[in-house]
Amino acid sequence: MAQNYCKKLFLFSLLSVLLANFQLAKAGSFQILNLNVSKITDRSVEITWQTNRKANGLVIFGPETDKYEYWSRDSYPNSFYHKAVLSNLLPDTIYHFRVKSRDFSGNQIISNNQYFKTKKHKDILPPKISEIKIISITGTTSTITWKTDEPARDIIKYGTTPECRKTKTIYNYQTFHEVTLFGLKPNTKYYFQFQSKDSSGNVGSSGVLNFRTSRTDKTDKEPLIISYLAPISNNDPNITEHSAIISWKTNRITSGEVCYGKGNSCSSILRSKPPKKLFHRFILDNLEPGTTYMFKVTSKDVFNNKKSSINLFFTTKKSNINFKLQADSSLNTSFSSNSLDNKIEFFPPSFYTSPTLLLTTPKTDKIYAILNGKKHWIVSPLSFESYGFYWSDVKTVSQEQLNKYPDVKLVKTPSRSTVYLLEKGVKRPIFSAKVFEKMGYKWKDVCTVNQIDLNAYPTGPMIL
To answer: pLDDT digit string (tens) for 356-401?
Structure first.
């Protein structure tokens, strides 16, 4: 008995060892074959492989060796053939990965570390064009601006017919675009369109637009003029202990530059960003209190004419000095002279009542701004541009549509508190705030206009 028992025990042990060896041999024969990386783009890649028995698969991957932050499952589970697509990758980036497969006996195998590099980003979208504006029109020029959502260079076509036979090319890649067309004829309708092309060759187009040049080329022949230059005295409220605001106006759109420094030096330079402007405003900061600074401004127009001011000076406020502000009492005092009415002052567009529409009619050259639901006549191109308006924003409507808007009656200028009533072709100053309210007028109906427009009306009797 004992001998038979020992014999059975030996056979059972031998069988166990053979079975274990068979399982190990079986596990050792599980293989990953034909591992391949293909279809690499800037955002994705396809990984394929085979196994010598049916299995499931997984790809683990990441931008660092042996640090696999992401995974993608096999598209063909329970198969000899396997595929995983890795997506949402970064362009121009090296990724490391391993392939894992498990058969249905629970045996698992994993590949060695592999890697691939995604392609550089391929841009297939055209530049997005926005904010097309005609910022200046003269008798012989037109300056057009627009923006793109990516750097692009431009071809602009223009002419007196919609076919736009003339071409101008801008080779610089930029996101803000400013183009001036020269050699135009006065009082002529022009058509234009432009294409903005990115570095991948994608093209965005504006479509065909149009404008009309000014009636004469008189303004083009005038010399470049700098006016309303400030500060001109140390009492200017825009001079503080540590800063000063330099501002000026030109009679044509220009680029601007300010050089400044302590004493008689010109050690620092500030330059304007496009587009070119009629009004220029620079803030000098980090100045020293109680210090004299020299400054000089320079403007350059579209014809490359350049104009500079003389050297000017200002002194920053001293520290720890309280300045008493004087209240504006011009509404509560009478005056007997209208000499101030002839003074034209420069103010940034934000000082004026903002229009909701700019309108004209087919049978007139007059342009009206719709202010607080009423129409206000803009007396001249100089006045129009002083408000910072764009000619491309003017809409043509019928006379009947324009007549639906009542006329603006109550106006003032930014420089004074005096309110005028416009009636029967004259402006009548209102003596005081008390008189204004006694007449039943509402302060919300007062529109702030420029001195150019106000000067177009002769002064009538004061309202007392």
So the answer is: 999 998 877 789 999 999 999 998 877 887 788 877 788 889 999 9
CB atoms within 10 A of CB 160: 15
Count CA atoms closer than 13 A to 261's CA, side-chain side.
8
**Cis previous bond, 406, omega within 30:** no
Which residue type occupies 390?
Y
By the 8 A CB rule, do 405 and 370 touch? yes
Element (H, E) at 298: strand 292-301
Containing 256, the helix (H) or strand (E) segment is: strand 244-262
Amino acid at 298: T
Using only C-alpha atoms, the chain has a radius of gyration, in whole angstroms, of 38
* Domain 28-117 shares a fold with domain 129-220: yes
Superfamily of domain 222-315, CATH level 4: Immunoglobulins (2.60.40.10)
Spatial neighbors of 119 by CB under 8 A, at least 6 apart, are 40, 41, 42, 91, 92
| Amino acid (one-letter) located at 338 | N
Residue 220: closest CA among 267, 245, 253, 246: 253
Tokens 């997005």 correspond to 128
Task: Decide if 415 contacts 345 (C-beta within 8 A).
Answer: yes
Maximal C-alpha separation, the chain: 144
- Is the distance from CB of 92 to CB of 114 less than 8 angstroms? no
pTM, full prediction: 0.53
Write down how long the chain is. Answer: 464
- Tokens 């005295």: give the residue: 233
* Per-residue pLDDT tens digits for 130-182: 999 999 999 999 999 999 999 999 999 999 999 999 999 999 999 999 999 99
CATH 2.60.40.10 fits 28-117, yes or no: yes
The two three-digit tokens of residue 412, written as one number? 């003032």
Of the candidates 203, 89, 194, the one whose C-alpha atom is nearest the C-alpha of residue 150 is 203
Token representation of residue 82 = 């396997």
Burial class (CB in 10 A: 0-12, 13-18, 19+), 111: middle
The answer to whether 71 and 78 are in contact (CB under 8 A) is no
> Class of the 129-220 domain?
mainly beta
Q: Where are the domains of the chain?
A: 28-117, 129-220, 222-315, 331-455
